[in-house]
Write the structure tokens for this entry.
Amino acid sequence: MSGRFRLVLALAGAVAVLALVAALVAWWLHRRAGGPGDVEAGGPGATVEVEVDLYFPGEGTSLARERRRMRVPEDAEGRLLALAQAVLGGPRSPSLLAPLPSGVEARGVYLTAGGDAYLDLITAEEGAPPPSGGSTAEMLRVYSLVNSLALNEPRARRVALVWNGVQRETFSGHLDTSRPLAPHPGLVERRR
């Protein structure tokens, strides 16, 4: 290699390193100025504020709608996970119920290209079964999550609930949960 070619290579390498350092400094200054929670729109981890309808078991045999404004990730799986966490966190209205007992958490969501969302629910107690209950209680628990996810995220057409890493045939012995379920808007009480 000639001396001139080596010099060109060395200069190109130095320019690339300087460009990388400048980009890192600019990113750091942007994050510092915007605060730790601010993310530029469209970038990885970007969030948006949306109005959503969450569905909770109410009195009787229906689900009640609770409207909220939430900041959620722009990506579909992140949005679905945030919705599930909000539902599991319980309603704001004292007349509504959380679908599952405290201690149940959403570990993650996987969304297929066909629109099936797999929500992985976990409990602190390894191998613990889902809460028992009658057919109505089971239906309201399951569809509280299914409706809240599928009716707020257009890319999720159906939702499958996975319990501690296993997709169960049923949660309490009444409703077939071995396959992804479409939302059931008929369970939502009509507003007066």
Remarks:
- The longest strand covers residues 47-57.
- Confidence is low (pLDDT under 50) at residues 16-40.
- Residues 1-38 form one domain.
